[in-house]
Amino acid sequence: MSDPLDVLETLYTAVVADVLDSLGHRNQTLDPNIRAMTPTRQVAGRVFTAKAEAVAAIPAEPYKLEMAAIDSMTTDDVLVVDAGHNRQSAFWGELLSTACAAKGVRGAVMSTCTRDLWALEKMEFPVFAIGRTPADSKGRIDVTSIGEPITIDGVAISPGDYLLGDPDGVVIIPAQALDETLSLAQEKVNGENTVRDDLANGMPVTKAFAKHGIL
Question: Domain 4-175, CATH 3.90.830.10 — does that match?
Answer without folding.
Answer: no
